[in-house]
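Exercise 7. Given the encoded structure of a 122-residue chain, write a plausible sequence.
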């Protein structure tokens, strides 16, 4: 942390020093980290746990709770007949699932409507 002290007034410097001394006294009153870690480890062992079980391994992601699978989880969607056709290239079609294909996105950006490209049912 870097603070430019040259631009502070005497009053601002005094307030900064007071805050720094207050923070310093708070930190001095705290129990050392090693002592706290020892107490936590001792308590966890007394309860039959390891710190890894409680907090995971350092640097590892916490285990996610078993989530309910989403509506599509594990299900394959069946094939769908195309609903839209590129008027410039009839071989290019789109089912309507997912993102718009580039050809349709470009035409829609020019002001056309998706309904303009629907394939007529016979």
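Solution.
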């Amino acid at each position: 942390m870097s603070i430019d002290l040259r631009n502070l007034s005497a009053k601002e410097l005094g307030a900064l020093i007071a805050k720094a001394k207050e923070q310093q006294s708070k930190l001095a009153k705290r129990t050392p980290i090693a002592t706290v870690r020892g107490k936590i480890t001792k308590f966890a062992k007394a309860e039959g746990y390891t710190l890894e079980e409680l907090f995971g391994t350092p640097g590892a992601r916490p285990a996610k709770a078993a989530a309910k699978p989403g509506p599509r989880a594990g299900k394959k969607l069946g094939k769908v007949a195309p609903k839209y056709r590129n008027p410039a290239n009839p071989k290019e079609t789109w089912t309507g699932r997912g993102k718009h294909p580039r050809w349709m996105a470009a035409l829609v950006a020019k002001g056309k409507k998706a309904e303009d490209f629907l394939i007529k049912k016979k």
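Remark. The chain is about 40% helix and 5% strand. Students should compare their own answers with the one above.
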